[in-house]
Amino acid sequence: MISTAVISYGISARTFHIPFISTNPHFSLDIILERSGETAKEKFPAVHIAKSLEEVLSNEKIDLVVIASPNTTHFSYAKAALLAGKHIVVEKPFTNNTAEAMELVELSRSTGKLCAVFHNRRYVADFLTMKSIIETGLIGEPREFFAHYDRYRPDPRTYGLWREEALPGSGIFYDLGPHLIDQALMLFGKPQSITADIRKLKDYSKVDDYFDLKLDYGNLIVTLHSSMLVREMGPRYMLHGTKGSFIKSGEDPQEELLKAGVTPTSADWGKEEEKNFGLLHTEVDGKIIREIYPSLQGGFGMFYKNLQQAIENGTPSTETPEHGYNVIKLIELAFESSDKKASVEVVGLI
For residue 22, what is the domain's CATH number? Predict the structure, then answer.
């Protein structure tokens, strides 16, 4: 079993990591770092509760360290864990700048330890379905792609307050942007240029709460959008190609189930309800079809299944530090574009 330590016991750790580590027989949840309080002990009485990072990293039994702490700590904790000879998982955003990201890329290479970025939105039903539609040519060659990650949150947070403070890695673009940017890179590869509008729409905002990002691929334009002031949601994704279109609304069910405390062990985990299936309008074998298209089954647990195979069997890692670097590079280029109010050439991806 892969002896695992989880750094912090906040919403990210409790919702997206621990449920999949504790239900995967290849992982042993042995340490949780909770600097104050005993909340983790109440839920996991058999798990050792550490009070410092040093206590975690000095434990020779630990193979894997999952870093789900605030964004300002990602780089320093990840660097320390790699230097201590541990494999690591780093929550998004990978780091707060490309210099830090590149240092982790090089450390992973030099230590031979896996550095996996938690891009869990690769394992949602809508993304997996669109990936299949593109790969099978159902809508022909993609020409336009629209992705929205909107919410309605007009009032200040009552939890995770650091996310709305003017700190490195705070703001909606560092919070939700990595999900959409990583999906675009996985679907379409590296763009040629980027045009971004990143701003504050709410009067009290100290950090950005809106972004509209366009990635230009020459014969394809990708639009990635997020706002905290969208009360009436439109389509989540729109994919248009030379033969047809795919329109998808609704949110993947996993996050809400996890927040409600549902254990991710059922055979139906990650399946969408039929009411959230997308609409496919295209041409197949000379026949025009316009029909509801069933979503493929998702599952955040696929991330940890792939990670286990990489650690134990040496299979290629699916979420690499290079992927994390590229996302942070595009975030930096997007801020440059927004500041200049101009398109910026995409260079420097690896």
Answer: 3.40.50.720
